[in-house]
Specification:
Elements (H helix, E strand, L loop, with lengths): L5 H12 L6 E6 L19 H14 L5 E2 L1 H5 L5 H6 L6 H4 L3 E6 L4 H5 L11 E2 L37
Parallel strand pairs: 1-3, 2-3, 3-4
C-alpha cells in the first residue's frame, strides 16, 4: 500500500494551525473496479484484512491518536458501537473540536473489514453501517453530505424536477 500522506497531511497541518475547528470528516472509499483510463495508471488493490490493517497503521503515522476520534474511543467500555451510540457516548462538540474522523464507504467489502475486528475494535475509520448492527456508531440516522460523487453515481432526489 502506498504512503497515505497527501490530503491527510495537509488536513493535519491545517488542523494543527486551527486547533478549535469543528470535526473534519475524511471519507475513504473502497473502489475495486479496474480503472478505465486512456493512460497508464495504478490499479486499485484488492482489499483484504491485511490491507485494511495497513490502512489503519498508515493513518496512525499521519494523524496522532489524540487528533482523531476512533471507534474504540466512542465505544469505550460498551460492548458495541451501537450500544455506545444509544448511550450517547460520542464526544461532545467541545471535546471533538480540533479532531479528524475517518469514515469508510465499505458496504461492498464489509465482511473483510470486520474480520478480526468485531464492532470495529482496533479500526480507525467508522463505517456506513446499517442501524442496529454492532458497528453502527450513529443511533440517530444522522447523515453526512458528500459532494464528490461522479455523474455516473447520480444522487436520488426527493424532488420530481431534481431541483433544490
Amino acid at each position: 500500500m502506498p504512503a497515505l500522506c497527501g490530503l491527510p497531511c495537509r488536513v493535519r497541518a491545517w488542523s494543527l494551525a486551527h486547533q478549535r475547528h469543528l470535526p473534519i470528516f475524511i471519507v475513504v472509499e473502497t473502489k475495486q473496479s479496474p480503472l478505465k483510463a486512456p493512460f497508464s495508471s495504478v490499479q486499485p488493490e484488492t482489499f483484504t484484512s491485511a490491507v485494511f490493517d495497513a490502512l489503519d497503521s498508515e493513518i496512525k503515522t499521519v494523524v496522532a491518536q489524540n487528533e482523531m476520534i476512533t471507534p474504540d474511543q466512542v465505544r469505550g467500555t460498551h460492548a458495541t458501537l451501537q450500544e455506545a451510540a444509544l448511550a450517547h457516548h460520542w464526544p461532545t462538540l467541545a471535546e471533538a473540536r480540533g479532531k479528524v474522523v475517518f469514515l469508510m464507504d465499505q458496504q461492498n467489502v464489509g465482511a473483510v473489514y470486520f474480520e478480526g475486528h468485531p464492532s470495529l475494535e482496533g479500526r480507525i475509520p467508522f463505517t456506513n453501517a446499517t442501524p442496529g448492527t454492532p458497528d453502527a456508531a450513529s443511533s440517530s440516522g444522522a447523515q453526512i453530505l458528500s459532494t464528490d460523487y461522479p455523474a455516473s453515481e447520480a444522487a436520488t432526489s426527493v424532488h420530481d424536477d431534481n431541483q433544490m
